[in-house]
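Feature request disguised as a bug report, sorry. It would help if multi-protein outputs had a clear separator. Right now it looks like this:
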Amino acid sequence: MFLQNRINSWISSVAPHNALPLRIELWNGRSFDFSPEAPRVTIRVPRPSAARYLLSPSLANLGTAYVEGIIEVKGRAADMIKVVNALARSSLRQTGRLGRVVRTYRHSRRHDAQAVRYHYDVSNEFYQQFLDPNMVYSCAYFEHGDEDLATAQLKKIDHILAKIRLRPGQTLLDIGCGWGALVIRAAQQYGARCVGITLSQNQFALAQERVRAAGLQDLVEIRLQDYRDVQGTFDRITSVGMFEHVGLKHLVEYFAIINRLLATDGLAMNHGITSTDPNNGETPYGGGEFIEKYVFPHGELAHLGEVLRAMQQGQLEAYDVENLRRHYARTCAIWTENFEAHEDQVRALAGDKRFRIWHVYLAGCAYAFEQDLISLYQIVCGKAGRNPAAMPWSRGYIYASES
């Protein structure tokens, strides 16, 4: 009776402020609707011991309970995420561990390789269920807003190659090359001589296979290599969706390495997720805690200001900065729809638990980008102190090249 009274009290304090399409079903057969609207999300608490997750509904608590099968949640992931965020806002104060937490980790070669392989080496077939045919696992670029995912991902790659003014025969290093889409495109469209590096064994194997299939072995080399071990000089350097793994304490070193590898008159572009908290904090209400535990071990997000500061300390000058936050919100929303459309295949490939992890992770990312809890910036840079006349006077060259 005491537990039932606590639940009744919690519902009566939260429900009046949230007309949510939510139904809560308890182990004793009782149910509660949070609005007259037909429920789009149902949370079932199958036993009294699971009620504690409901009574302290942080994203970490409810996410853990869902992933581990302690509670049952039914509904589209986008609806689930909106409901859970509303419950967290109404029930919790955004302070302490539920607020914008800053974490620091060791980022040795071994630790970084383990973290990358945990996330990316699920299986290539798993990622094929929700990515585009080229398997580009980063923010797409919706030039007009109505492109399908495959078109928007190719436009993103072309947008990057236009920004760095890639020219025929130049050398290009892609740090964190994924399954090879960018280096293959650069070789096909520009005849660039490319090196792509990754720490994922699965990405390495499939990227090599795709390079061979495209007949580009003479132009593209895929390496299983840490960025700290690359030697040589490159005319152009890209890093797309990789620097989130670098670590806050290593950002200056990371940019200094790019500076060392970059030709005197070269251009580099860093494309990555950033925190919108000026103090580099992670997403609130335990969202970052959930991602660290289940999705991206040792991932750290820096605020744009911190990125630009570290870039300058690494002797690189930022030439162009573009915010693509809304593009990533749309990308993640499409990934979520694809993921749900292939639910049976995903469960068969990865199991029920990993399905639940990614189900809420992809939709949670879409929500976080939509709500400006995290962002995405492309930053074009070059060696500090270059003659300013060496760069075009306007951004027009980017769009002229794309048209």
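(second protein starts here, but nothing in the output says so)
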Amino acid sequence: MIQSSVLQADILIVDDTPENLRLLSSMLAEQGYKVRKATNGKQALKAIEAQAPDLILLDIMMPEMNGYQIAQHLKALPPTREIPIIFLSALNELMDKVLAFDVGGVDYITKPFQVQEVLVRVRTQITLREQQKQLLEQNQKLQQEIKERQKVESALRVYIHAVSHDLRNPVTGMLIVLKNLLAKKSSESPSTLMVPTHILEQMANSCDRQLNLIHSLVETSDMGLQGISVNGQPLDLVNFTQQLIAEWQPIFAKNRVSLNNELPSNLPAVKADSTQLWRVFDNLISNAIKYNPPGLTLTLSAEIISEKKAKSKSYTRWIKYTISDDGIGVKSEEADELFELYKRGKNVGKIKGLGLGLYLCRQIINAHGGKIGVIPNENSGASFWFTLPLF
């Protein structure tokens, strides 16, 4: 492979003596090299600018611009820095050779030329140049592979965090219910526990949602780990919110959360994926409880809004859903970056968190075609809102 590339190598000969040019070009052309010639520094630089050669044979003693100056110029420019230069000269003093290597030369041939010596030295440098190119290509491929692997590892980390993050809330709620039931067991019959039907139904629904969430997360991993897939179906947000409140009730009670449900009863259906949307509510509600002291008041509200289509006179209608609290609030300078991956507010103190929840919320709402944001109001609570398309 290298030998084939060597025979096709492009060599530029720079010498102000025509006889030297003819001799060198003739012997190199016979070996299969592509040969170009220049009689002075200006011609040489112009030829190199037009097409960088694989090797330069450079005479030292030339008028106007000598070989040392040409080499210094080439080594100062990134595009030509790596081109190997073999100096040609009748100068045979040690300092001349030292200077040639100091300015970037890779070899030095003394005039008059010995044909076999020139051919061997040229072949050696062309081979080294080809190996250098191959090594550079391999390094570039390796760097690309490293970047791709880092991207996959980062995506995998997000996926694993998402699984643990989103399963935590439903498991916590069910655990509270189970502990409350166990705490109420009768001392007269400790091995028997009477459980109301509605609690069993609630627990069964919670398990169904957890199973659906697991299926959704597995599908997400199959799509490239960070992709969000939504299955938009008609969804009654009023009924959906009531189910959500019922499942969160144990956690609300434990944290003394008061709830104001201000949703209009005649709210039209939206087109949404209930499993993915549940993740949005879980994250927004759990954040409100986690980052505020007990005794929080949550307010749920919704309204219909219209938005003008781009380059059109028509409008699209959306439901804007808002979850507000009366907690410590959000600083305005932090509002824009809260939805970025692994970003957290600066007022969270020592409360543990990944900075993943709001990022997932944005991914899910964007996948529905909607928008999400926060109305900052430091020291007076926060209002997180998102939009969903009407069905």
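Even a blank line would do. Unrelated, but nice: The first strand starts at residue 10 and ends at 14.
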